[in-house]
What we know:
By secondary structure, this protein is an all-alpha fold. It has helices spanning 8-143, 147-163.
Amino acid sequence: MDLVTPGFGLIAWTTFTFLLLVALLGKFAWKPILTMVKEREASIDMALKAAHAAKAEMAALHSSNEQLLKETREERERILKEAREMREKTISDAKSAASSEAAKVLETAREQIHNEKMAAMTEVKNQVAQLAVEMSERILRAELQNAAAQKAMVDRALQDVNLN
């Protein structure tokens, strides 16, 4: 069992070497490694915080953009509604103005036609009366040429007056 049991010197030198290695690694390797690990952890933590802040900011911006889009849509719909209402009002105003103007023109035309008709009727009556007077005058002149015809005409006129 000598082969398996280490000697005291070997244990002492192995322990000394191990402690020396631990001291050297602690002084020259572990402190910089631990410092770098802590710095890396801090930078990762800061990056995570920045990512969370950016995510929250993006969510706020997205919410703000959605609100702006909603307001813009509502404003567009309101403007379109006002434009439609104005168009309908303008059309109805134009229609009513056109119909009232057409009614006025039609009434004026009717009055003018009536006046011209009455003037034409008066003119025809005057011409008929003038023609009747002229015809009566000619007939009377022709019949009153002799005395017997005059006496017969006066007798007929007297009989007509008595009959009425």
